[in-house]
Amino acid sequence: LKRGNARYVSDAQVCESDLEARRHAVAASQAPWASILSCADSRVPPELLFGGLGVGELFVARNAGNLVDTDVLGTMEYGAEHLHSPLILVMGHQRCGAVAAACDVVTKQAKFPGSIGQMIAPIVPIAQSTQAMPGDFVTNTIHENCRNSAKVLTERSEILTELVHEGKIKIVTAYYELDTGKVEFLG
Fold first, then answer.
1. For 151-161, how does the pLDDT look when each residue is reduced to its tens digit (9 = 90+)?
2. Which of 21, 59, 133, 163 would bridge with 35, disulfide CB 3.0–4.6 Å?
3. Is 56 in contact with 26 (CB distance < 8 Å)?
4. pTM of the predicted model, to two decimals?
């Protein structure tokens, strides 16, 4: 991590052309055009998935399973209310381990140690609700988990609900395909 950061500081063009200038331009303030809640999976870096965007363009919160907890909710509220980011994207991805684990709880009565079981607990009811749907169980659950997280944002936040109602922000969901690199926006 230290070597990577040193490389970024000394040769920022490795990431994006003229990234050093962009870094200086946004050092004093930020105005991201989108806030993103995505999975912590190392294969799903939003800044790269959306075209290698530069510093200061995306306001990102990540955790396993792209779930809404107090920290994520506060982050999304801050992005929308204080940074005036007009878009919130909740993005799941192909072969999500957190969702697959919740599906295993439903189908195999799997148990997970430590905080992992508690972390995936909110996904288990979603998996139960999608189990009988046609198609791939895990993929259906990933899609529905994204929709649920988007719904939770407005159910638990008066700030986001008001901003959506006023037309100041839009909340959308998406699914990233690891195999193709494509992002599918969900209905």
1. 999 999 999 99
2. 59
3. yes
4. 0.90
